[in-house]
Design brief:
With about 425 residues, the protein is α+β, with helices and mostly antiparallel strands. It has three domains: about 160 residues, Reverse transcriptase/Diguanylate cyclase domain (Alpha-Beta Plaits, 2-Layer Sandwich), CATH 3.30.70; about 60 residues, MutS, DNA mismatch repair protein, domain I (3-Layer(aba) Sandwich), CATH 3.40.1170.60; about 150 residues, DNA polymerase, Y-family, little finger domain (Dna Ligase, domain 1, 2-Layer Sandwich). Helices cover about 40% and strands about 20% of the residues. The chain has 14 helices and twelve strands. The strands form three sheets. It has a five-stranded mixed β-sheet with strand order 5-6-1-7-8. Strands 9-12-10-11 form a four-stranded antiparallel β-sheet, covered by helices on one side. It has a three-stranded mixed β-sheet with strand order 3-2-4. Strand 5 and strand 6 form a beta hairpin. Helix 10 packs across helix 11. Bound molecules: magnesium ion. Magnesium ion (MG) binds next to strand 1.
């Protein structure tokens, strides 16, 4: 039987690349994208990396360096990044439906399903297409396991002569070099917890980890360790998780733009989280039996406090109104007016398919109410998908806006808001 071949397509410096689509003048300049509340760097251009700005660099610590080196900072524009990501996913799934969306800027593809077996050529064409149609540079790693494919894409990024494609299936020399040059900590699934254990065994590269006996790997890291070593040797242990895999839990969390002791501000934040989570739940075709919320004060200030509570629904639901009402009622029980709230979140879990509603033993389930709610949500989603997100929304969401993260340096929503369409000037210079 022929082996499964995977490709990992990874967008280079994704958030920065998205900003550059509409600002070609930023090409070749150091650019960083800052997280929620403009706190720390979550994406860096190669030029910014070369200046020694690390991932997660706190903006306030690097303010002088930004100024001196003319680093251009942006607040994260997630509307833009999400939309660009969707466009890339569309191109990938056109090539093959055997695509696993791993994160906003990474996807695994199963190439062995294709008729063209020149995988490197397929990858080069794909790369060119994404560049021409979307304007984002990507790196592609090709191998017979997901772990190796991920390693290959990182290696392709670090070696300009590979032009963004590393195919480890056709070139054993390349595979040996890539494994030898990958630091242990950069192997997918090793992480900061396992690395010291492995370093103590004298292992410092991916090549050395691949040499570890599977028995010892299992002793050190459990079943996952045994699989990890076999994956590095090119054996497929982790299968593709195809698009449409249903989430088992959904959560929405935010640090507020400013701390608050106002209930209506918390109410508005929770309503907004519940709206987003309920929408995601309906998109996955599921209903939930449990919802929970938490709120905390600032952990860096004295008297740090946290509150949380879970609600169990006798009839599972995906109704935004039901979720908002029960979460806000729960918060009103927990609320202490002399506290300043810094962060809050909502989670949903314990799902079942919306298609079958198990009637509970005591006959508490009101089927007609459930059907009505499903219809109401369907119309809400239809309206919002046609006329734009939040066209129709629950009033609680509008109670306040001050909880929203501060994004002072945000670029326009070029692709998702008519008012932010880029202007093109034609004519003589
Ligand atoms: Mg990336």
């Amino acid at each position: 039987m022929s082996k499964t071949v995977f490709a990992l397509v990874d967008c280079n410096n994704f958030f920065v690349s998205c900003e550059r689509i509409f600002r070609p003048d930023l090409e070749g300049k150091p650019v960083v994208v800052l997280s929620s509340n403009d706190g720390c760097a979550v994406a860096r251009s190669n030029e910014a990396k070369a200046l020694g700005i690390p991932m997660g660099a706190p903006a306030f610590k690097y303010r002088d360096l930004f100024k001196r080196e003319k680093v251009i900072p942006f607040s994260a524009n997630f509307e833009l990044y999400g939309d660009i990501s969707k466009r890339i996913i569309r191109i990938l799934t056109e090539l093959t439906p055997r695509t696993e969306i791993y994160s906003i800027d990474e996807a695994f593809l199963e190439l062995s399903q294709l008729t063209n077996t020149d995988y490197a050529a397929v990858a080069r064409t794909l790369r060119e297409r994404i560049w021409n149609e979307v304007g984002v540079p990507v790196s592609v790693g090709i191998a017979t396991s997901k772990t190796l494919a991920k390693l290959a894409s990182e290696y392709a990024k670090s070696q300009p002569q590979l032009h963004g494609v590393a195919d480890l299936t056709s070139n054993t020399q390349l595979r040996t070099t890539a494994l030898a040059k990958t630091e242990l900590e950069h192997v997918w699934g090793v992480g900061w917890r396992l690395a010291p254990k492995l370093r103590a065994e004298g292992i410092s590269t991916a090549a050395e980890l691949a040499q570890l006996s599977t028995r010892r790997a299992r002793q050190l890291m459990g079943v996952r360790g045994d699989q990890l070593v076999r994956e590095l040797r090119g054996e497929t242990c982790f299968e593709l998780q195809i698009l449409g895999t249903k989430p088992k839990s959904i959560s929405r969390t935010r640090t507020f733009g400013e701390d608050t002791n106002q209930f209506h501000i918390l109410e508005s934040a929770l309503a907004s989280f519940a709206t987003q989570a309920a929408y995601r739940l309906r998109q996955s075709g599921q209903i939930t039996r449990r919802a929970g919320l938490f709120a905390t004060t600032n952990r860096h200030k004295p008297g740090f406090r946290t509150w949380s509570k879970e609600i169990v629904f006798s009839t599972p639901t995906s109704d935004t109104g039901t979720l908002i009402t029960s979460l806000i009622n729960t918060m009103s029980e927990l609320f202490e007016p002399n506290q300043f709230y810094h962060r809050a979140g909502v989670w949903l879990h314990d799902f079942q398919p919306a298609s079958y509603l198990q009637t509970d033993l005591f006959g508490q389930t009101d089927l007609s109410a459930f059907t009505k709610s499903q219809q109401r949500m369907q119309s809400l989603d239809n309206l919002n998908s046609r006329f734009g997100r939040s066209t129709v929304r629950y009033a609680a969401e509008d109670l306040a806006r001050t909880w929203q993260p501060i994004r002072k340096l945000c670029s326009p929503h070029y692709t998702t808001d008519w008012d932010d369409l880029p202007t093109v000037r034609l004519g003589e210079m």
